[in-house]
Amino acid sequence: MSLFKKMDLNEDEAVKQPKGESEKVKCLIIGSGPAGYTAAIYAARANLSPVLYEGLQPGGQLTTTTEVENFPGYPEGITGPEMMDDFKKQARRFGTDIRFGLATGSDLTAPPFKITIDNSKVIEAESLIIATGATAKYLGLESERKYMGSGVSACATCDGFFYKNQDVAVVGGGDTAAEEALYLSGICRRVYLIIRKDHMRASKVLQERVFNQDNISVFFEHITREIVGEDGVVTGVLLVNSKGEEVLLDITGFFVAIGHTPNSSIFKEYLERDEVGYIKTKVGSTHTNVEGVFACGDVMDPVYRQAVTAAGTGCMAAIDSERYLASRKVASLVSKS
Predict the structure, then answer these.
(1) pLDDT tens-digit profile of 160-177?
(2) Does residue 222 contact residue 252 with C-beta atoms inside 8 Å?
(3) Closest CA to 305 of 183, 123, 140
(4) Residue 88 DSSP label
(5) Which end of the chain is more exposed for a tag (fewer CB within 10 A), N or C?
């Protein structure tokens, strides 16, 4: 979920800095998923006195996940909310100042970088770590929300194992949907790929792989009308084709693969982003094109989008930030001598 108020901000609006209360900090972290909390742990242990703003959904997307079984250190698995609570407790243990608030504006012209919180308070940060994540796109069905985490998922790599030897459906026609369907085909008994158009947008190579996979069935010109369930879990999906005919598929898992929106719009004036909106970072680091501003987690990762990789880049961002601040201190001492 986005860390920004949708009613206040969008890609086409200019982000303005309101006049109001201000505060100066050494290291500001925006975002409270695995990347943000990991950055906070490392920054706090490096005596950077980090201030972290959680955003609209403290804990990030993992708080909507019922079971996490692929994060190292949890041999019996753990729920997403419980794991993120552990992250938060560890960050707080080392002295991170964790606050609830939404980033609604930015001025990254020069340090200290100015971030507006809740359209009122301005935080002036010597270094900035952006861990605002990416928001998965959904179909907008009421039944989709109803079964979120109980059969509906936006990440096959995260949740596919729970549907081993079962029948599942994937909705989408691009590269992401093709990749999700292919991944699930190695785990599940049958994968139904639902595409609203009469063709796929995925690359030719991925299309060939999909069509050559025996346990993937492609439904062109079908849209999802409703996700069907019983006793709180998914049992099927009701489709309707271009002729108005309904088709009911018996499935236990429904995967939405129609893309993600990186939560980066308030930085668009200053940071280099790709065509989708993912923040670009220098190879092998979390440095953005603005010195002193670092990006980690899903807001800069269009490829993996996993909790463990997000945590890894959070660690990198904290180390990059600490080294940047140390170099600025040295530079200021040299300039004064």
Answers:
(1) 999 999 999 999 999 889
(2) no
(3) 183
(4) H
(5) C
